[in-house]
């Protein structure tokens, strides 16, 4: 695989980042995951805008313009022949000479920019989407700025392991009695013709797929209600689903051992997936 590091396209085995990089030592970095379908980037502008916002919230300088970033994405898709898959991008505050809690001088320490591709044939025609996924609930003990897409993914990663251990696919996180989001996706339920999902705030990541799906709701003759909800309310819903750049719209068929409806993906979630895939290609 050819990867990109700070201005260079290299074989992955030759790509290097300093051990003093702030992301390695302090998780001081942000990332984006953009999907590729039919060799084309999905929603690049949305991801670029959110990246800019993450960077500015953390006072990390943009490593290049968003047009240059688009060129790098396209070049990597081409070099690695990606038809379906994802592009991972990470920007860190860079590598100062030593470990220090104080931010380094941005004049001397430049941000690190890394991108690599993930080839995932069959991403759109996923078998998981036909079966639906099962989730458990876990406490949301993450920090208070989940709107910034940082690389602090230890707890989401542990959450995924808790799910695997429980014999299911993923976990929904709960804070003060209400669902925030999935370990790496936004969470929704459907009751009647209404899609319910938590409103945007610093408590959740502002999903790019979320924005698109809510825009397409009207096309599926559905209404959107953005508000807090509990696990119990979602368990009594007709359907549930998650969204992310790597799963698109993925039906959820079981929450904490309780099956939703018939325990198979519901027609509305599947319709939303279809519309999302049609419209964003
Ligand atoms: N995760 N919430 C969290 C906590 C996420 O990590 C993600 C994305 C989302 C969905 O955002 P979007 O629709 O923009 O992908 C919501 C990516 C895919 C990841 O970590 O791999």
From TrEMBL:
Its EC number is 2.6.1.42. GO terms for molecular function: L-isoleucine-2-oxoglutarate transaminase activity; L-leucine-2-oxoglutarate transaminase activity; L-valine-2-oxoglutarate transaminase activity. It catalyses: L-isoleucine + 2-oxoglutarate = (S)-3-methyl-2-oxopentanoate + L-glutamate; L-valine + 2-oxoglutarate = 3-methyl-2-oxobutanoate + L-glutamate; L-leucine + 2-oxoglutarate = 4-methyl-2-oxopentanoate + L-glutamate. InterPro entries: Aminotrans_IV, Aminotrans_IV_CS, Aminotransferase-like, BCAT-like_C, BCAT-like_N, Class-IV_PLP-Dep_Aminotrnsfr. One of its GO terms (cellular component) is cytosol. GO terms for biological process: amino acid biosynthetic process; branched-chain amino acid biosynthetic process. Pathway: Amino-acid biosynthesis; L-isoleucine biosynthesis; L-isoleucine from 2-oxobutanoate: step 4/4; Amino-acid biosynthesis; L-valine biosynthesis; L-valine from pyruvate: step 4/4; Amino-acid biosynthesis; L-leucine biosynthesis; L-leucine from 3-methyl-2-oxobutanoate: step 4/4. It comes from the Bacteria. Pfam families: Aminotran_4. Gene3D superfamilies: 3.30.470.10, D-amino Acid Aminotransferase, subunit A, domain 2. Its cofactor is pyridoxal 5'-phosphate. It is an enzyme of class 2 (transferase). Keywords: Amino-acid biosynthesis, Aminotransferase, Branched-chain amino acid biosynthesis, Pyridoxal phosphate, Transferase. Acts on leucine, isoleucine and valine. Belongs to the class-IV pyridoxal-phosphate-dependent aminotransferase family. This is Probable branched-chain-amino-acid aminotransferase. It comes from Tropicibacter naphthalenivorans.
């Amino acid at each position: 695989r050819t990867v990109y590091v700070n201005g260079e396209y290299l074989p992955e085995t030759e790509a290097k980042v300093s051990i003093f990089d702030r992301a390695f030592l302090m998780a001081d970095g942000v990332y984006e995951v953009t999907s590729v379908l039919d060799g084309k980037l999905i929603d690049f502008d949305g991801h670029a805008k959110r990246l800019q916002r993450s960077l500015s919230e953390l006072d990390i300088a943009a490593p290049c313009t968003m047009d240059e970033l688009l060129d790098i994405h396209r070049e990597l898709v081409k070099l690695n022949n990606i038809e379906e898959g994802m592009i991972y991008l990470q920007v860190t505050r860079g590598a100062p000479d030593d470990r220090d809690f104080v931010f380094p001088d941005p004049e001397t320490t430049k941000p690190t920019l890394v991108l690599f591709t993930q080839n995932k044939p069959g991403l759109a025609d996923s078998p998981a989407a036909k079966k639906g996924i099962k989730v458990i609930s876990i406490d949301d003990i993450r920090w208070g700025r989940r709107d910034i897409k940082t690389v602090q993914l230890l707890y989401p990663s542990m959450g995924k392991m808790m799910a695997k251990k429980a014999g299911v696919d993923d976990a929904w996180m709960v804070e003060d009695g209400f669902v925030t989001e999935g370990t790496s996706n936004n969470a929704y339920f459907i009751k009647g013709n209404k899609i319910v999902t938590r409103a945007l705030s610093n408590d959740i990541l502002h999903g790019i797929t979320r924005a698109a799906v809510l825009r397409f709701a009207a096309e599926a003759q559905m209404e959107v209600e953005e508000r807090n909800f509990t696990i119990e309310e979602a368990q009594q819903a007709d359907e549930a689903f998650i969204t992310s750049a790597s799963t698109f719209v993925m039906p959820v068929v079981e929450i904490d051992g309780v099956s939703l409806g018939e325990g198979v993906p519901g027609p509305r979630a599947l319709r939303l997936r279809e519309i999302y895939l049609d419209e964003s290609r």
